[in-house]
């Protein structure tokens, strides 16, 4: 068992790192300039590759059906974005907006509850000693190893027996359980919540749960956000689960709705515009969330990096 | 299992010394009456474990149970079905099923292409961003990570449109350069699938590697530079060995993800890629067995074998990683 090492936080921010000298005695300025160009050139190329499909989606969403096929992918046709959006939001009695709301319910509400459970459990694993603690924690780690798609079929059959199949609960309940989140929460609790502070609260006469709610939880806020982001992404991504559990298209998340529309595009090409615009509307909030919440996924990914 | 490295900017003034690992965790307050503490611990962990039991343990137990039985339709199929104990017949049926075996061969071939491509490009990009020469490090990290913010279903749909003649600008570029390419042809479809997955995961793994590289002591790198090692040599000789365990972990997660491949082949199959059949990957096979043929016993047996493979992979890679670390 190795010990946890916490980097010296502030000094390690990429921005605050002092650079290694780029020029050693043996190098000429030209070769330094050349390698700088090569390094940054390669990075620009990679960024073009990752951004290309998203930019195509953005441009394609502005085209009507004729221009989609008649104009070249990155050439602009007539501006039809508003028409496409209107069509998307009114098609089939506005079913798309309903899917969108469902997605928000499954991912935002589900992840918030899930993160709270994870933080409470991780905190308890870190701060309390009880019988069979490490065995229980081993069970949680075992849960991390089990591939989620594999238990989908028996879960469906159990859900059928319990009568929750084809209801909101069919996706919400599984979304509440995130073993990796518990593991992360324990790591965060070790790093963020000093035992001395809890001691002080106890000396002041605060009860255990009150100490957790008033002191532990606020200190774990960054950890909560990180776990929330992970769960949120998983929830918004969950296509297989929805495909297995739901028949009623009024309960679909956006993913499953787009999948259904996409499956008829080859017979009815007018659905292409719906799928393209619908995809764009579905990814924009995610991209915005990622750009705004960078700090949190960064810390989550690093907590998962093993030394 | 190695403890993770939490390099998070904690609250100012918090002690970030080496924290005790779970093994050596000292009781926070031995002086407190323990009944209240026990009750608090129970209250905090019970909800999670109740749900954990319901959605993880119970389905696995149920799958085990189901995999031992066969449904026999009695009479003309009107009388419903009877459960018949089948022992390990479902397992042998799955293992002797040519389609199930082929699905693993497909995944193995896919991994042989995908893992080197993915790890190679993520590592190269992480080293590039980490090198002292890179500009706009934040922008590049974000731009490369962006695909991960896109649900894999939508990523698959978009790339499949980019593979579709008539819609795709990529095919237009290839044609204007005088070439021709068919993304769905039997020889190319695996490349198309690899590209689809690599696009989603390269930036994600790059960020993990980059984070691990931040933990490499700067003094070591500076010493190497002082000794006259160039950027490339520093990267190959110092940086890569020092983040070996992060690489091993990433390979592991990638393998466990690869055996669960579902969305990408499902959509390529829907598009009519000739070599991607309805049971191309193990999860597609399970889907077909369970939801199309309603052979739950077979589907459960196949699911459990896939889960066992995932867990076995985890152990093998972790063991290899430990040995590798010990040798380093």
UniProtKB/TrEMBL annotation, chain A:
Q: Give the ABC transmembrane type-1 domain ranges.
A: 100-293
Pfam families the record matches: BPD_transp_1 (PF00528)
- Which keywords appear in this protein's UniProt record, sorted alphabetically? Cell membrane, Membrane, Transmembrane, Transmembrane helix, Transport
User: What InterPro entries does the entry give?
Assistant: MetI-like (IPR000515), MetI-like_sf (IPR035906)
Q: Where is this region: Disordered?
A: 1-29
Subcellular localization is given as: Cell membrane
Q: Where is the signal peptide?
A: none
Q: Name one GO cellular component term.
A: plasma membrane
SUPFAM superfamilies hit by this protein = MetI-like
TM spans (from-to):
38-61, 104-125, 137-159, 165-185, 220-246, 271-293
Which residues fall in a compositionally biased region of kind Basic residues?
A: 15-26
Q: How does it sit in the membrane?
A: Multi-pass membrane protein
Which is a GO BP term held by this UniProt record?
transmembrane transport
Q: Which family does it belong to?
A: Belongs to the binding-protein-dependent transport system permease family.
The protein here is known as: ABC transporter permease subunit
| Organism (species) | Streptomyces broussonetiae
């Amino acid at each position: 068992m190795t010990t946890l090492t916490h980097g010296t936080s502030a000094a390690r921010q990429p921005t605050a790192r002092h650079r290694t000298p780029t020029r050693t005695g043996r190098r000429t300025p030209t070769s330094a300039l050349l390698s700088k160009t090569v390094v940054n050139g390669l990075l620009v190329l990679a960024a073009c590759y990752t951004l290309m499909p998203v930019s195509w989606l953005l441009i394609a969403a502005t085209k009507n059906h004729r221009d989609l096929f008649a104009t070249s992918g990155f050439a602009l046709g007539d501006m039809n974005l508003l028409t496409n959006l209107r069509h998307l939001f009114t098609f089939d009695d506005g079913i798309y907006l309903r899917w969108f709301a469902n997605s928000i319910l499954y991912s935002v509400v589900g992840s918030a509850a899930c993160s709270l459970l994870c933080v409470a459990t991780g905190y308890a694993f870190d701060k309390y000693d009880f019988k069979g603690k490490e065995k229980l924690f081993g069970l949680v780690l075992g849960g991390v190893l089990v591939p989620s798609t594999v238990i989908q079929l028996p879960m469906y059959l159990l859900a059928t027996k319990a009568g929750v199949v084809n209801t909101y609960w069919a996706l919400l309940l599984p979304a509440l359980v995130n073993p990796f989140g518990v593991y992360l929460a324990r790591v965060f609790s070790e790093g963020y919540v000093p035992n001395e502070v809890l001691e002080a609260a106890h000396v002041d006469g605060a009860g255990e749960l009150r100490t957790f709610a008033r002191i532990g939880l606020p200190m774990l806020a960054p950890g909560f956000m990180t776990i929330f982001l992970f769960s949120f992404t998983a929830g918004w991504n969950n296509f297989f689960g929805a495909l297995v559990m739901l028949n009623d298209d009024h309960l679909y998340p956006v993913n499953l709705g787009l999948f259904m529309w996409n499956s008829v595009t080859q017979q009815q090409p007018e659905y292409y515009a719906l799928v393209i615009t619908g995809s764009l509307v579905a990814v924009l909030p995610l991209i915005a969330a990622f750009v705004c919440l960078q700090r949190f996924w960064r810390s989550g990914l690093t907590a998962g990096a093993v030394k | 299992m190695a403890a993770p490295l939490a390099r998070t900017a904690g609250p100012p003034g918090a002690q970030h010394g080496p924290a005790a690992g779970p093994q050596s965790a000292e009781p926070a307050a031995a002086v407190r009456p323990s009944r209240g503490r026990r009750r608090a611990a129970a209250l905090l962990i019970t909800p999670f474990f109740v749900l954990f039991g319901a959605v993880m343990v119970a389905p696995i137990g149920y799958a085990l149970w189901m995999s031992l039985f066969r449904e026999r339709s009695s009479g003309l199929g009107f009388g419903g079905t009877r459960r018949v104990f089948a022992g390990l017949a479902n397992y042998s049926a799955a293992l002797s099923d040519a389609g199930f075996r082929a699905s693993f061969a497909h995944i193995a071939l896919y991994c042989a292409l995908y893992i080197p491509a993915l790890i190679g490009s993520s590592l190269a990009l992480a080293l590039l961003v980490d090198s002292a020469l890179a500009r706009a490090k934040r922008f590049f990290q974000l731009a490369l990570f962006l695909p991960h913010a896109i649900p894999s279903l939508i990523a698959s749909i978009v790339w499949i449109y980019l593979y579709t003649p008539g819609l795709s600008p990529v095919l237009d570029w290839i044609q204007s350069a005088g070439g021709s390419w068919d993304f769905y042809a039997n020889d190319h479809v695996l490349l198309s699938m690899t590209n689809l997955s690599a696009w989603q995961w390269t930036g994600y793994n790059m960020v993990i590697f980059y984070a691990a590289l931040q933990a490499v002591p700067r003094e070591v790198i500076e010493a190497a530079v002082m000794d006259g090692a160039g950027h490339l040599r520093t990267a190959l000789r110092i940086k890569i060995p020092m983040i070996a365990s992060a690489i091993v972990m990433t390979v592991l997660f990638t393998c466990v993800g690869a055996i669960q491949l579902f969305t990408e082949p499902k959509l390529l199959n829907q598009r009519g890629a000739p070599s991607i059949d309805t049971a191309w990957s193990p999860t597609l096979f399970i889907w077909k067995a369970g939801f199309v043929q309603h052979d739950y016993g077979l589907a459960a047996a196949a699911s459990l074998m896939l889960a066992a493979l995932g867990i076995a992979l985890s152990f093998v890679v972790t063991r290899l990683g430990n040995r590798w670390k010990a040798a380093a």
